[in-house]
Amino acid sequence: MTVKIHSLKINTSKNFEIIDITSRINELIEIDKGIVSIFSKHSTSAIVVNENERGLLRDFEAAMDNLITDKFSYQHDRIDNNARSHLKSFLLSSSECLPIKNGRLDLGTWQSVFFVELDGPRANRTVTLTMVGE
Predict the structure, then answer these.
(1) Which of 12, 72, 100, 131 has its CA 20 to 30 A from that of 31?
(2) How many angstroms separate the CA atoms of 112 and 20, rounded?
(3) Helices 54-67, 83-91: crossing angle, 10 deg rounding
(4) Helix H or strand E encompassing 97
(5) Arithmetic mean of pLDDT, 110-132
(6) What confidence tier does 72 reach under pLDDT thresholds 50, 70, 90?
(7) Structurally, what CATH architecture does the domain formed by 2-68+83-133 represent?
(8) How many Cα neighbours within 13 Å face the side chain of 92?
């Protein structure tokens, strides 16, 4: 069994941004088969798997804004005024664990891996990849 660990650095330019990181992950895979844990080291970001279709990505952003609105006075905003970003991250996930086959992510036809920025713009966001396999 082999374990390989890599980090991706991601810079974002918007408050809410969805970035396809599938190809960057595939470039770093060093095992033929196994699994990879993809983990964002930030409380106001997420890792998700879905289809990379422009309309769907816009719909996702609108749905998140409708679920967590700025109509309320959130208690966390007294600290650093980003409660909406933290609340959105509660609904998503900071990680995904995905299969690797033939040295690449074994995704469905329409699936991609996304880093979701919820509190940008930010520089040097870190995503850790931990690969276990052969």
Answers:
(1) 12
(2) 7
(3) 120
(4) strand 95-101
(5) 98
(6) confident
(7) Sandwich (2.60)
(8) 32
What one-character DSSP code corresponds to residue 83? H
Q: How many CB atoms lie within 10 A of CB 69?
A: 9
Measured CA to CA in angstroms, residue 78 lies from 15, 27, 66, 81, 118 at distances of: 19, 42, 22, 6, 18
For residues 10-22, give the mean pLDDT: 98
Residue pair 49/114 in contact (Cβ under 8 Å)? The answer is yes
Q: Taking the CB of residue 114, how many other CB atoms lie within 10 A of it?
A: 22
The residue with tokens 């469905």 is 108
Residue 82 has pLDDT above 90, yes or no: yes
pTM given for the model: 0.96
Domain chopping of the chain, boundaries = 2-68+83-133
* Short-list 98, 96, 103, CA closest to 33: 103
Phi then psi for residue 93, to 5 deg, are -140, 150
The CB density around residue 22, as the number of other CB atoms within 10 Å, is: 16
Q: How far apart are CA 77 and CA 91, in angstroms?
A: 18
Token reading at 89: 């991250």
